[in-house]
Amino acid sequence: MPMLDVTDETLVVATPEQVREVLCEESFWEDRLPGVRLRCIDDRDELGKRWSVHGAMRGSAEVWLEPWLDAVVVHVFWQVDLADGHRPSARVRRRYAVDLKAHVAAVKDRLEAGRAPGTPRAGQAGE
Fold it and tell me: In the chain, what are the domains?
């Protein structure tokens, strides 16, 4: 069992292509997790990507994009061990989970900017 096993689901009112453009880029995660490098092992186009994780962490990561009505359910999975072999404390594990959620929430906020809550995404009204 990995030392860090983080799972998150977030509904983003945007197209799968818009979400993929940000969350399926290796640089997005590498910029937010210093010392981590990702290598794509499964590119599933509009459904997301899977990576092997190297560097400061070792294991696997995945962004699965599940279209739902005019939105996308973004499933993010990190199953990694720290490269130095140390077992992170519960506080550190929670911090990773909170940070991961914050990164995805920031993308959600950016992609949904200007849309009133409860309204369809731009271009969807009346379809």
Answer: 4-111 (3.30.530.20)
